Amino acid sequence: MAIEGKTEARTQKIRLGMVGGGSGAFIGGVHRMAARIDDHFELVAGALSSTAEKSLASGRELGLDPERCYGSFEEMAENESARPDGIEAVSIVTPNHVHYPAAKAFLERGIHVICDKPLTSNLEDAKKLKAVADQSKALFVLTHNYTGYPMVRHARELVRSGELGDIRLVQMEYPQDWLAEPIEQTGQKQAAWRTDPKQSGAGGSTGDIGTHAYNLGCFISGLEVEELAADVHTFVAGRKLDDNAHVMLRFKAKGGGMPAKGLLWCSQVAVGHENGLKVRVYGTKAGIEWVQADPNYLWFTRLGEPKQLITRGGAGAGASAQRVTRIPGGHPEGYLEAFATIYTEAAAAINAAKTGTAVDPAVVYPTIDDGVKGVAFVEACVASSKGNGAWVKV
After folding, report:
1. Does the predicted TM-score (pTM) go above 0.90?
2. Contact residues for 274 (Cβ-Cβ < 8 A; gap 6+)
3. What residues pair up with 262 in beta bridges, in sequence order?
């Protein structure tokens, strides 16, 4: 499957529904744009808000049939599964506590699920949802969108090919400053639910952005974390969830080698940082560094040699990066395109399932297993910090 602008056979668009993402919801708009970029999906139904009236109003703004604007995800799952032209896939873009019941309702009806991260608000629900997904014929895709960047794919390819040698160190950081003040107390919608344990779960910054950094470090390095020690803290007075965390990681040994070590910092009170996601991986032969603010560049350095800058669409980019590159080098691609890559990978897997054919081995997307690991990471961080930074198995 080539994403780059080339003539290719077009299959019928996948009929898509959406849970959440109504008027004023940032991530809902992102998902809709991402689903449209490569033109594999058509939004036809939605339970876009917590009330029938708001859902209908949001649906009308998006041009949906009023009869397919539902007051609840339960109603949507039941009605759409009974229609001959019902949705084939659903995007779930709600606060975390709704992910489990909503995904369960659609998976049980054989409707593919594309869900925002983290998987659920707690590990118990994550494990229960995995059990449902394992029994369902439908696919589950988790939108850790940063894995869709071409240079992230190339970084992963470099590690898998042995260019870095045995991995020794993995460093991840994700600092922001948008919660440096208690804006949740002003009624700011995005801040309000993310700092509410009833909606977000046990993790604040650890769940919202720490899971992204954690997933990305593991995705690139190919390693799994065995245990961690965390210092999780809340700096803003009155806030109910963490807004900063420092985490030490010990990875599982791979191939009989020495276990790698890791560091993860996530913060939403780091003044001066808008969205400072960065990953560095160091092996016995070479090191790599990728920064989301300049996503079209990857620094690669062999031991004893000058640093090499590899560019998206450039001569040094490998097949895995070229496969998800849409436009020539020098024309920047960014956040929305990376998000769209996850949707396009999902479309490839869904279409393969529809035709009963094997999915292309090159298709890569975060799964229910990645989601469970992310929630386990959050709960391990909280447990470790309560134990004064004690090492906790993940």
Report:
1. yes
2. 176, 177, 178
3. 170, 249
